Amino acid sequence: MYLPSATESAVEKENTINKEVHRKKREKQKQDNCMATVDQKVTIDCPWSIYSTIIALTFCLPFNAKHSLLSAGKRKYVQVCVQNLSELCFQLSNNSLKNFAECTDLQLVPLNLESQQVIYSKQSIFFVWELKWTKEHPLSLQCLFSVSFRPATSEEQSFTLKPFTYEFQVENFFTLYHVKTEIFPPLGAEYCKTGSLCSLEVSITRLADLSEVDRDEALTESD
């Protein structure tokens, strides 16, 4: 998203330190917006001139996204976290997650009930999909997350912005271990009470063999 600088006056344009003033304004704008920025340069060549004109553009990244794979028993979920990096509030809508892998029996069931959400400055919003398959799940998932956004303030609703997209891949998401925990009251007591010493029992069951990569990275028996 490109945020242009304020228009300079005619006096500033005629000033010999115009470039320095413009640079300081651009740096101040970056600090005010507090967005992650990407600086690009565009070179313009004219056929009737031997000189090239270089224009500096600063693009602001309003969001940052990351994904994680969650498991609960035999059920699996894909979670995408979207973080607002700017000082602005945005209206999010039409979120989707598509799988480009050649797997017809795999479904991504969305668990997000609200179609539109407001994401405030420095806030994170989570989107979750449940993986459902009829046969064996694929070895990898090539996913593309997309969500439409626009400024939440009424005076800026006329902005037309392209959807924010985030592409990621998940491989070898087999469930290797099943972890179960349970807390028991002291011997002779019926319930756990504050201040009493209770025991915690953790049961770890291996459900699948380790792959060659996981086996190389696994801890040794002595560790």
From TrEMBL:
GO biological process: early endosome to Golgi transport; intra-Golgi vesicle-mediated transport
CC annotations in GO: cytosol; TRAPPII protein complex
Residue ranges, annotated region (Disordered): 1-29
Matching InterPro entries: TRAPPC10/Trs130 (IPR045126)
Positions with biased composition (Basic and acidic residues): 10-20
Family matches, as PANTHER family: EPILEPSY HOLOPROSENCEPHALY CANDIDATE 1/TMEM1 (PTHR13251), TRAFFICKING PROTEIN PARTICLE COMPLEX SUBUNIT 10 (PTHR13251:SF3)
Protein name in the entry: Trafficking protein particle complex subunit 10
